[in-house]
Amino acid sequence: MKKATAKKRAPRNRTMELSNTERQFYQNSILTLTRPVHEREVENRIIAQNLLEALDYLPA
What we know:
By secondary structure, the protein is α+β, with helices and mostly antiparallel strands. It contains 3 helices and 2 strands, in the order H-E-H-E-H. Helices cover about 25% and strands about 5% of the residues. It has a two-stranded parallel sheet with strand order 1-2. The longest helix is centred in the middle third of the chain and has 8 residues, at about 20-25. The radius of gyration is 16 Å and the shape is elongated.
């Protein structure tokens, strides 16, 4: 069986790496927009979606 090795990242990569605890914590904040939303619905939330798709649903 092969050992898992850390993925080699580009030197200027800014991707965040989360622990399992952090991942569980932030999982509750993630949403994908499928309808127009009020600003209170997205305040302090993480929108995991293509920006061009989400723009139609965000408040003006």
